[in-house]
Amino acid sequence: MAYNSGVQLAGIAGIVGGGLGAYFGYNYAIAEGMPPVQGALILGAVGMIAFSAGAFVLKSAMQFVVYVIMLGLVVYIFRDPIEGLTGVNPVLAVHTTLTGWGLPLPPLE
């Protein structure tokens, strides 16, 4: 169910993108000497697809970010039991990995 939760958002974004694309396509077609309706249909369809896909991808990316944050909180809160079970401090492991990738992080205390 969570996968389909942003369908309405993507639909609204598609309608907005289609309207903007149609507007720009109509004006551009007039400037280029094409039939205005043809330009509106072409760029309206492109705008609808681009905005709808963009909203869907952004929603999915934000869901991924939320899950990463939740996982990070759980690991941080339960770092002592995790270290006792695995012998690895998860906070130190993540810090070492991120600094190894070049992210400038302050040193751990």
3D architecture notes:
The protein is mostly helical. It folds into two domains: 2-70; 78-109, no CATH class. 80% of the residues lie in helices and 0% in strands. The protein has four helices and no strands. Helix 1 runs antiparallel to helix 2 (36-77). The longest helix is centred in the middle third of the chain and has 42 residues, at 36-77. The protein is elongated and about 70 Å long. The two termini are 42 Å apart.
Summarize the structure.
By secondary structure, this protein is mostly helical. The protein contains four helices and no strands.
Shape: elongated
Mean pLDDT level: 85
The largest β sheet comes out as: none
N-to-C order of helices and strands: HHHH
Indicate how many domains the architecture comprises: 2
What is the overall number of helices? Answer: 4
Radius of gyration: 24 Å
Strand content: under 5%
**Which class of secondary structure composition applies to the elements?**
mainly alpha
User: Got a strand count?
Assistant: 0
Helical amount among residues, as a percent range?
A: over 70%
Terminus-to-terminus distance: 42 Å
Low-confidence stretches: none
Protein traits:
single chain; 109 residues; mainly alpha; 2 domains; 4 helices
